[in-house]
Request: fold
Amino acid sequence: MKFKNNFPLKLLFIFTAIIFVGCSKKQKEVALIAKSNQPNIILFVADDHGTDAIGAYGNPIIKTPNLDKLATEGVKFTNAYCTSASCAASRSVILSGKFGHATGSYGHVHDYHHFSTYDRETSLPVIMESAGYETARIGKYHVAPEKVYHFNTVLEADPRNTVAMAEACADVLKSDKPFFLYFCTDDPHRGHPFEPEQWDVPNSFGNKKEGYKDVETIVYDPKDVLVPSFLPDTKQTREEIAQYYQSVSRIDQGFGKLMKMLKQTGKDKNTIVIYISDNGMAFPGAKTTVNEPGIKLPCIIKDPTKDIKNATNEAMVSWVDLAPTILDMAKIDFKKEQFHGTSFNSILDKSEVEGWDEIYASHTFHEITMYYPMRVVRSKNYKLIWNIAYRLEYPFASDLWASSTWQSIYKNNIEYFGPKTVKEFLFRPEFELYDLEKDAAELNNLAVKKEFEMVLEEMKTKMKKFQTKTQDPWAIMWSHDASLQGSGVNL
Reply:
């Protein structure tokens, strides 16, 4: 059979195939161009670093030039909160976008603590990998199971040497695909041994006399450090803060090295960099508490695709918002209802924002021996803490109990720990209500004052709605309604 002009059918098929292949090739090229427009993302997570020890947040003593530079190149959030001031619990929220009470991530993962996220959950790195990203992690992991929090590439380096960690990331920074790098230091967490031979010896915070390869050892004089108002201003406290500062300065150098390497690849103009911490400084009154020093944290974001530099953003954002925010930044479609948090990508470059004036926190365990569930709502200037197990003595993390900062008070039978009595520190009321605008130190409990009864009830209502919406098992403690518990029978 022949067509007009004697054009063979066979040749027509070949011609059509050539056109089809050519179109397919062009379509693939277009897809690759579209994918190349997706930004690289670096999420840098420090371990126990509060806003108290970073120059960009107002500390004139600490030397953090690289982090301070990041703030001048992007936006600094002044009301950024983790949801639980405990390493593993906080990290599960960062990567899942859900509160730990809903995912089974109640506390620590390692050793006998063994809290683990439900295996039905998904996570940020898994979603990003399925969308074509190279996902890589280095340093502290502290979440489980691996199936839920899977990264395509796992890099190895001393998590106390952030310069070495940065160098280990060289291949990821050169990836042909857009990459998501989860960079997690062990600094400035307290170092082993937690309990020294002499009670008044300061913890090392990972510092070593011989220092670390390619890292400048920056030493601080205890008399120069700034003692936060919630801590006792003692010799021991100052010595430990000096060690803490030294560990923070090591983070800063590694961060600087990573940024230098990124610039050398030429990808700095298409890489979003986020700096946060998992919880506040590892001192009694901060870490493991839901007081401001424990959960209000640094959050600095540089997005070279947005016209924003040296900005300050007062919006209240939470680590539960990070997963949807990063997916939004990466231009990856997702179902908003799969997360408890909300993307704040659209407000990064806004000088004034409306509606971002409420956050929630949920802490249940740190170590398995530290059962002390607390729930928090902060709405504008008011903050409500519900100490669900208020009849118990407030439990201590093992490293905080052994700290010379605490022992200097405990061993000497001193009545006060900072501005609070030791008794007030150890035995807390069921409800704590504070006006943070007037009482940033959280010392004047309005929950016991008659004139604030209406405010207290309004805040309780918000908390109950939050617990119901996020399926918090501890909601049962309001009315002993066991509806969330189910039948207990697998049908």
Summary: DSSP finds 15 helices and 14 strands in the chain. The mean pLDDT is 92. The first strand starts at residue 40 and ends at 46. The radius of gyration is 25 Å.
